[in-house]
Amino acid sequence: MTTLFISDLHLCAERPEKLELFKTLLQGTARRAESLYILGDLFEAWAGDDDSTPPHGEIIAELAAYTRSGPRLFIMRGNRDYLISQKFTEKTGAQLLHDETPITLNGDRVLLMHGDTLCSEDVKYQVFRRIVNNIFSRNLFMLFPYALRSKIWHKIRGAAKKSAQNKSEYLIDVTQATVEKVMKKHDVLCLIHGHTHRQAVHEFKIDGKEAKRIVLGDWIQEDSVLVSDKDGFRLLRIDEYTACS
Predict the structure, then answer these.
(1) Most C-beta atoms within 10 A of its C-beta, which of 40, 67, 74, 123?
(2) pTM of this prediction?
(3) CB distance 109 to 185 below 8 Å
């Protein structure tokens, strides 16, 4: 069976063509897959499960229609949408995954992550992440009225985006030592993640064994889907996947 992985779509009203591409995927060939995994940053910004900013309602409706059609849908929080919670999964039929989720794929253990915790050299970001991305902080933030919460969240995202533009390349990419540490922790030789927007397959060794790290591409400039089937892994553009399916 075919399993699909996507990440960092950053869907928003400013990129309507990406929303249409997402709908094309969900309404078309992705329905013949067994499972679809969205590994974070589905939305450009998400201020909570009551966030009705267009086109969020349309996206939720598409996801709900997709799960009703048969395939399983799994979603992981990203740094843009870490406020996704139970109400979102109830509306869409998705299963919410924790970061660092191992799965079995074609008989092998594979680790799934969003990827931001792998950028461990960026100490300031990691401190910020630990403060805001925990159950207590999320629950406290959700007590704020939606209008205030949305205003605060968009200000935080704007400041974070500006900060990222001034960071060195090594700060915004993963640290290999951290990659190997988390892979050893979960006893895996394959890691799939997004976040960095640097689509690639990196091969290396862990304790003398062949290992790989597959980085999903983003949908801001182009688009990307990782296809896993009996032939292994393939990183494709959406139109390539549609054409070969």
Answers:
(1) 40
(2) 0.94
(3) no
